[in-house]
């Protein structure tokens, strides 16, 4: 089946530093990748849609200069949280779509900003 | 505004019984609907997809129905097992490749 990986699975950083999260589709080429954020006991909130070779489309209220997304290849998208602050602490999840309709999700990355 | 509602209260059910979850939506015309399972600290796992022109889909012990008149989907877990305990999310899509909009999820706890 379709497998999506994320790295790292967990990261702790100091306030003001930048953190990069990688999302890879392991056994299929992803035409589109999505980045979500999930706070405790809440559902997933879409942050941005990423297509290979083009700029990401951000959802309303998501700062594009703070959450930098790069989709350099059909199997890799990265999310960089720049100048992270404690309020950015959350569970970040990516998903990917190949030729079909189904979105396959990565295992998530837990970010804790001290 | 568009709304997708799932029962926020946890569903406690005895092992072997059928769990039924609801997903209601308003101001939305989805092309298809998906159900996912999410365990604590993990990403969602895809379970079933049902299109607007389909009434019912089955996969092993899972069954999904889709009523576009009622704007509702029902998700059934038959012969439930403790391993089925998780949060179940419904998500709607307007068209293929477009973004998913998730409901709040319903937590299911199957007791042995």
Which tags fit this structure?
heterodimer; A: about 110 residues; about 55% strand; globular; B: about 110 residues; mainly beta; 6-stranded mixed sheet; about 0% helix
Write a structural description:
The complex is a heterodimer of chains A (114) and B (112). With 114 residues, chain A is an all-beta fold. Chain A is built from no helices and 11 strands. In chain A, strand 5 and strand 6 form a beta hairpin. The radius of gyration of chain A is 13 Å and the shape is globular. Chain A starts with a strand and ends with a strand. With 112 residues, chain B is an all-beta fold. Chain B contains no helices and 11 strands.
Give a count of the beta strands of chain A, DSSP E runs of length 2 or more: 11
The percentage of residues in β strands of chain A lies in over 45%
Total helical segments of chain A: 0
For the record, give the distance between the C-alpha atoms at the N and C termini of chain A, rounded to a whole number.
37 Å
Instruction: Show unreliable segments of chain A.
Output: none
Q: What's the β-strand tally of chain B? A: 11
> Helical content of chain B, roughly?
under 10%
Count of helical regions of chain B: 0
- Biggest β-sheet of chain A, characterized? 7 strands, mixed
């Amino acid at each position: 089946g379709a497998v999506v990986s994320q790295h790292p699975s967990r990261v702790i950083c100091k306030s003001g530093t930048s953190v990069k999260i990688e999302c890879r589709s392991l056994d299929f080429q992803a035409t589109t990748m999505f980045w979500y954020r999930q706070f405790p006991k809440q559902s997933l909130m879409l942050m941005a849609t990423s297509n290979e070779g083009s700029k990401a489309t951000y959802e309303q209220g998501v700062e594009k200069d703070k959450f930098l997304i790069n989709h350099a290849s059909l199997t890799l998208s990265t999310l960089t949280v720049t100048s992270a602050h404690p309020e950015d602490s959350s569970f970040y999840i990516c998903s990917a779509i190949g030729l079909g309709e189904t979105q396959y999700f990565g295992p998530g990355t837990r970010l804790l900003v001290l | 505004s568009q709304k997708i509602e799932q029962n926020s209260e946890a569903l406690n059910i005895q092992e072997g019984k059928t769990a039924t979850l609801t997903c209601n939506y308003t101001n939305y015309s989805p092309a298809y609907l998906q159900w996912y399972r999410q365990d604590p600290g993990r990403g969602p796992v895809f379970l079933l997809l049902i299109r607007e022109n389909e009434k019912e889909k089955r996969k092993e012990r899972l069954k999904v129905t889709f009523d576009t008149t009622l704007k509702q989907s029902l998700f059934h877990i038959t012969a439930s097992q403790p391993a089925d305990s998780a949060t179940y999310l419904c998500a709607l899509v307007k068209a293929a490749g477009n973004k998913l909009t998730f409901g709040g999820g319903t937590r299911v706890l199957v007791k042995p």
